[in-house]
Structures are given as C-alpha cells and as structure tokens.
Amino acid sequence: MVSSLIPALVQRLSTPVNHYCGKLFPATALAPVCLPEEGRLSQHEPKDPIRLFPQDRERQTVHVTTHGARIGRAGDTLTVVDTEGSKQVFPIRSVGEVVVHGNAQISTQAIHLCASQEIGVHWFTGGGRYIGGLAAGASPVQRRLRQFEALHDPGMVFRLARRLVFARAAGQLSFLLRASRDKDRAACGIDEAVQGIRNALRAVDHAEGIDSLRGHEGDAARHYFSALPALLREDLDERFRFDGRNRRPPQDRLNALLSFGYALLYRDVLQAIITVGLEPAFGFFHRPRSAAHPLALDLMELFRVPLWDLPMIASVNRLQWDADADFTCAGKQVWLSDLGRKKAIEIYERRKEDQWKHPVTGYSLSYARLIELETRLLEKEWSGEPGLFARMRLR
Q: I need a labelling partner for 212 at 20 to 30 A (CA). Which of 7, 125, 229, 335 fits?
C-alpha cells in the first residue's frame, strides 16, 4: 500500500503536510530538509522547537588561490600542488566545495571525483569575479515547478520582496548603530544616515509595487554607504579612505574588498540554493539583467552586512591590510593581490564559522549553516508553512 503511494507523491506539486509525531522526527535523516520543528513555528505553536537542523557544516571549503597550482586526484583524496612542488592533501569526505581562483588548474579526474561525491566546483577570475560552477546530482524538478508556480504570483513576489528589503535595511541600520556607539553621530554624519534609513524603512511599509520597493532599497543603501567612512579609524592610511560604492571594476581599496567579499558570499548563497534544489535563475526582487542569478542576488541581501561588511570594517580598523602588498592597481582599477585574496578568504571563512542565535528558531548555528536554513525557510513560503523567511536581524 505504501509503495503504491510513492509515484503519486513524487508527481504531485504540493508538498505533504508535516505532522508532529513526538519523537519520530528526530530519527529521520530528512528532518534537516523538511524542517518539521521549524514548520510548527509558522503555525504559532508556543513550544520551543527541538533542534534537528545541524549547528555547523561538517565539511570544509577548499580555496586554491596560487597561480599555477594544480588540483589533482589520488585515490579518494584531492591533492593541491603549487609551482614549487609543495603538496596539500584533502580527503574527499572532508571537502564541501572546491573554489579555483585565477590561473589554478583542476584535472578531469579531480572533477569526476567531486561530481561523484556531489561536491561543487567553482571558478573565480584573478580579479575576484565569479565565473561559474559545477553542481552534480539530479535536478529536483517538482521542487522547481513549485517555485515557478509560486513566483508567478505577483502577490507572493511582492510580499517576499517587501520582507527582504525591510530585512536588509534593518540590518544596515543595526550595524551603523552598533559600530558607532562610541562616536559623536551628529558630528560625523551618522545621524543623518540613520534617519535616512529609518525613513526608508517606514516607506517600505507603504510601498505599492516592486519598483517603489527598489527605490526605497536604493535610498537605504545610499545612506548606509555614505556613513561607512565614519566607521573607519581616523589614523587610517589615506589609501583606505572610502568615498562611496563603485564596482565593475572597483576603483579603490575598500571597494575592492567589498566586491571580493560579496563574490565569495554570492558563491556560498548559490551553492545553498543548488543544495536545497531551487532554481537560482528565478528570483523575486532582482531583475535578470546580468550573468548573476537573480535568486542568489535576492538571498545575498540578508547576509552582506553580517558576513562581510562587519568583519571587513573590523579588519581594516585593526590595520590587518597592507595598502601595497595586498592590492594590485592598474590605472583606476584596484584588485586584491594573491596575498590579499588569501587574507580576505581567511577572514570570510572564519566569519562563517561564528555562531549566531536565530531569532525565530531560538537555537544557535553557524553563519555557514544559516545560509542554507534561510534558503529552506524561503521554500516554506510557498509550501504551506509561510512567515519564517527573512526574519533574522543583526543585534
């Protein structure tokens, strides 16, 4: 009887309802996918959820940044050999993703091993621009059909976009207030930026369409970036001064850091979307007008401040960056050097391991796991358990 139901369940677009069954859920390996405990929160059940979602990732991301390095296969391990013959060995079961930067090379045998273990392989240019990636495994077509159906609904799209814009602006506001506790906000212009973001947040509540939401999001971002210079220490090297956001290509060292960190974040968000089984090309806020996937750009907005802006500004104020050794300048273009990329990757990966208490679920998890959790909570918006997505807030 049960086996006869399986084809019908596979073919249906709607997902089965999660019923709470006491101690049965913890015994199933699908609990971190179905999120039955978190789903109960959408029904406003007062009981604290049992923690089933993993607190941290079990595998590491391998970044290969040395020009001329070769990634190969030796049995069930990946080997990384630099131009001087130095070798590093990574057991395949400890690897989550492989990221190839610049002119590093990866063999066909290594790609086959990663594909067989459903390990993503991603490529960046030497300047830090994301090129593309390999994602192994079958495409979960039913899950993507549900996504297409939901995001063709203008009402659903607008609700998700409004919540996303509010969450991003609220995060920017919290960061400015948190980082300027010991400063004279009126004298350094932070008060004006804070008021501008607050005005944008109020306007979001009264927005009547996606275009107006984009306008309010742009206003909040403009005020936010205008205040970033006031967060930097006064005795900083003049070459680290920030005079507004610019990119494609970045024209100063702070913008080079921002762009590279956002590219790392984009890769992690894209990997989470693929892992969950959604279609990254079909989003709800960003327009499909570049090579970047709209849904990845959407979800990135939740994590720009906590995963990169905050640790990056802190590292600059701690004088961790060398204006000469960590950057490469070509005319008006500024990129991170090999040494600078390694330093940025270290700061970013360390930040991903930091623990953070989710305000909805009430349990702590690493930022690396939080990206996947928020992606799964997004899917619940059109799977019968809405209201949990984009409620994370920077404290």
A: 229
